[in-house]
Amino acid sequence: MLWVAIRMLTGDKAKFYGLLFGIAFSTLLITQQLTIFVNLLNLGAAGVYNNGNGEVFVMDPVSTTTDVTYPMAITTLDQVRSVDEVEWAVPQLRTAAAVRTRQGGLEQVIIVGVDDATLTGMPKNIITGSKDMLRLPDTVIVDDVGSTRLFPSLNPIGQELELNDRRAVVRGIADTTPGFSSTAVLYTTYSQALGYVPGTRNRMSLIVASPRAGTTSEELVTAIEKATKLKARTREEFARDGIQFIIENTGIPFNFGITVALGFIVGVAIVGLTFSLFIRDNIKQFGALKAIGVTNKTLKKMVTVQAGLVGLIGYGFGVLATIGTLKAFSSNPFFKGFFVPWQVPLISLAAVIAILSFTAWIAMRRVLKTEPAEVFR
What are 21-44's pLDDT values in tens digits? Predict the structure, then answer.
């Protein structure tokens, strides 16, 4: 009987393909939008991910993320270093600036000043050049995504920039996670960054620290906050702060939530309507089956198999379409590092099951109410 159910389903190709389209389209909408949503949230933690080392970040109590900081006095660094649990602590400056290229362009960038002696705070991977190049005067290293914005048709290495009437030469390209604003990031030493972007008396944005052997990051955070009254966060906590900042201060969750809800509603509408038409057109066949003694339990299995087959194929097409969409845009710098979290396909699967359960339940009620006598009318 289950084979008969499959033949009934595939016999009407128009409705069969309509069901597949409805499920595939809903799966595509839900999976794609959830994937982009999760990856956009991760961009809020890019400033933490791009710090190659350092387990604890120390900042002013009002600071929230790597891009939303309140500058501290340089004497704060000595206070942190004086904490017994601290192995080492170095300063970091992060600030926005406008740069002028030799080609006449003007771009907004983020200047990151890392420790002069250890270069702590640089990304782990340098695509071109070496982070030791920062020890040369007037040197900056640009992130790989930002280099395409600053020099869209040129080799960035050796290009000159003007920051606050000072010359800066690009001598390296870093492999980084793009930030939420997609602004180019220029890495240089802390002392040179102070000259590139002069400002108020207090300039230090963050302190990057590491615990002594035998001390965990959580214990170091507690010790620093108790001794200095500053705010300290572990790497994981600070990354979550960046994600939480986007959730609380942008309309991204609401907008993506609407799209996901529309995907679910569209799925219910298309699949429900098409499945109802399929059952209506085959109601006499179901009546005939009841007339020859097929039980309601078997009929339920038949409808379940029909819904399950459509759902499985449509869901597969929808997930494959999502992966294909991401691959198609993989050359776009904005989509660098985008991936499909394993939880997202499971959420989409649950949505598909819910859509099919609802529509199959409606269709099954009509099948069970069918009288065998209707076949002979």
Answer: 888 888 888 888 888 888 888 888
pLDDT digits (tens, 9 = 90+) for 222-277: 999 999 999 999 999 999 999 999 888 888 888 888 888 888 888 777 777 777 77
Q: Over the range 144-176, which residues count as b (16 or more CB within 10 Å of their CB) and which as e?
A: bbbbebbbeeeebbebebebeeeebebbbbbbb
58 DSSP assignment? E
Cβ neighbours of 17 (radius 10 Å): 12
Q: Angle at Cα 351 formed by Cα 348 and Cα 354, nearest 5°? A: 155
184 contact partners, CB below 8 Å, separation of at least 6: 107, 108, 109, 110, 142, 143, 145, 146, 147, 149, 150
CA atoms within 13 A on the CB side of 67: 21
Contact 48, 73 (CB under 8 A): no
What are the structure tokens assigned to 357, written together? 């359960």
263: which 2 tokens? 């995907």
- Whether the pTM exceeds 0.90: the reply is no
> CB 135: neighbour CB atoms within 10 A?
12
CB 270 within 8 A of CB 17: no
Q: How far does CA 157 lie from the centroid of its chain?
A: 30
Contacts of 191 (CB under 8 A, 6+ apart): 113, 116
Residue-level length of the chain: 377
Strands 126-128, 166-174: pairing kind: antiparallel
- For the chain, strand residue ranges (E) read 56-59, 86-101, 106-114, 126-128, 139-143, 160-163, 166-174, 184-189, 206-211, 231-234
Partners of residue 108 on adjacent β-strands: 98
Express each pLDDT in 189-204 by its tens digit.
Answer: 999 999 888 777 888 9
